[in-house]
Amino acid sequence: MDRTGHFVNLPVYLRRTLLQDVGNSNEATFDYTQDEIDVLVDISGQYESQGLAPFFRRAAPVQVAYPNYPSTTGVAQIDYILCDQWVCPDGYEDQYTERVLRLSPGYLAYKPPDCADDVRRKWPAESGTVTLGLFQRATKYTAAMWDAIARILGERSNALLLIHYGSVELDDPQSPI
User: Among 59, 73, 132, 174, which lies 20 to 30 A Cα-Cα from 157?
Assistant: First the structure.
């Protein structure tokens, strides 16, 4: 059933929030309570340019985190965190400040394109090669990380490293990355 028309006709309110550095945190320059938000969901994560000020200030009666990393936000004012049985196995709920809500089968949706190879047929026992993947933003690369990767690759003569990140820095052979 196509519900596009339903969503097209819903009222949408957009407001640009300006963040400024205040001490060690980002503070918004306006009062979020005027928006009368019922449920506020963080899908940005905790990055330098993305403040959690609305959550600290309890901008909504129900606050939820949809993490882009497998850990708690550590923010007591966030009520729930969406995850799955792999990110937070049974018995690990005490590692979170939020109440854990597990989505089944998992909280990250992914369907490989039809043209993708069947990776199961390329298992190391069959191909003889172990391919390690690094899927991360280049800004998170560190010298210590590269040293650890070099040690791992040095111990495995049949290992390859696949780096996945679209970046101008990676295309530049003179880049320090």
Answer: 174
Token pair, residue 111, equals 């369907």
Task: Judge whether 2 lies within some domain.
Answer: no
Last residue of a domain, which of 53, 77, 102? 102
Q: Where are the beta strands (DSSP E) in the chain?
A: 19-22, 25-28, 39-42, 62-65, 80-83, 99-102, 130-135, 159-164
**Domain-located, residue 162:** yes
| Predicted local confidence at residue 24, as pLDDT | 44
For residue 17, what is the DSSP state? P
82-134 tens-digit pLDDT = 988 888 889 999 999 999 999 888 877 777 788 877 665 555 556 677 778 88
Tell me the C-alpha distance between 67 and 107, whole Å. 9
Which amino acid is residue 173, in one-letter code? P
Sign, Cα dihedral of 130, 67, 147, 166: positive
Residues 96 and 123 in one domain: no
Q: Judge if 129 and 63 occupy the same domain.
A: no
Domain count, the chain: 2
Instruction: State the chain's maximal CA–CA distance in angstroms.
Output: 61
Q: Is 146 in contact with 136 (CB distance < 8 Å)?
A: no
How much is the pLDDT for 21?
43
- Whether residue 81 is contained in a domain is answered as yes
